[in-house]
Structure formats: C-alpha cells, structure tokens
Write a structure and sequence with these properties.
alpha+beta; 60s Ribosomal Protein L30, Chain: A; five-stranded mixed sheet
Length: 166
C-alpha cells in the first residue's frame, strides 16, 4: 500500500494508493480486474484500488491472513480509511470505475470474473453511499487507468481505442 506524495504512484494488481493535492495514481492491466478511483474534491484527496476478485470470504485461510486490497469487499473500505487519514471525507467521495472485461471464455455459470467484479464494486459503493460518477466497464480489452489528484480527472487508455476522460 502506497501513501507517498510524489509525482506518480503506480498501483499494482491487488494494491491501492492515496495522494493529496497533486500527482497521478496509475494502474495498468485492468482486464477482468476493476480499478476504483475515489475522489474528495473539497480536500483534493484521491485514491485508487486495483481489485482482482469480488469477495474475500471464500479465500480466507485458517489464520485469517489475506491481501485485503485484492477484493472489492475489503479494498474499498481500506481505501476510504487511507483517504480519511490524509484529510478526505467519506461523505464527499465520488467514484469512477473501469475494467471488468471478459478476456477469456465464460465459466460454467455464464457469469465472467469481470462481471462478478463489477457487481461487487457497485454493491460495495452503494452500501457506503458513494456515487459512481463515471465508468468504462466490460468489453474484451485491457485498460490503463490514471487518477489526476489535482482535479479528480480520470483517464482510461485502451490499445487501439485511444483515451477517454471519465
């Protein structure tokens, strides 16, 4: 977990980072994974999580140890907590989300990992009363997501499709 105030922070799969006032938080390789960008415009605090899977319950081992940044149900509350530590306020947060592609053929249930991840992220944000104000979801392509902390602007880069602003 990164909490540095530098120009660019790269968030790996199953990780998250927060910044205040300036800088860019970037994550690459959003396939079936979902990137969750949270932003508090008033305090200019931003955070980005790159979740790999939807729910942690089925993956907890006997010791209870697991990477909580890997799952939608645990990463989002942790991201909010880290943002609050540097001046963000949960009641002012807005979300922009991207990813959830289906890069491989569907499993037996017909619901892809990407679809499960999207559903879990939406559910977690709804439970926390955080509105989703921008999204680029689904499809069959990977994405790179950048959160510009000075403005809350999020860009999504996709090979062959260019850049969109959420």
């Amino acid at each position: 977990m990164s909490t540095l105030n530098m120009d660019t922070i790269k968030v790996k799969i199953a990780d998250l980072a927060v910044l205040r006032e300036s800088g860019v938080i970037i994550t690459v390789g959003l396939g079936s994974c979902v990137g969750i960008g949270l932003y508090d415009e008033s305090s200019r605090v931003g955070g980005l999580a790159h979740i790999l899977l939807s729910e942690s319950l089925q993956f907890q081992n006997r010791s209870g140890m697991l990477n909580k940044a890997k799952f939608a149900d645990t990463a989002i509350p942790i991201l909010i907590g880290e943002m609050e530590k540097i001046g963000g306020k949960r009641t002012r947060l807005q979300a922009k989300i991207a990813g959830g592609s289906q890069l491989f053929s569907s499993n037996k249930s017909g619901i892809s990992v990407g679809e499960k991840n999207i559903d879990a992220v939406r559910r977690a944000l709804e439970q926390l009363n955080i509105p989703i104000v921008g999204e680029d979801l689904g499809g069959s392509h990977g994405r790179t997501m950048r959160l510009y902390v000075d403005s809350g602007r999020v860009t999504i880069s996709t090979v062959g499709k260019g850049v969109i602003v959420l």
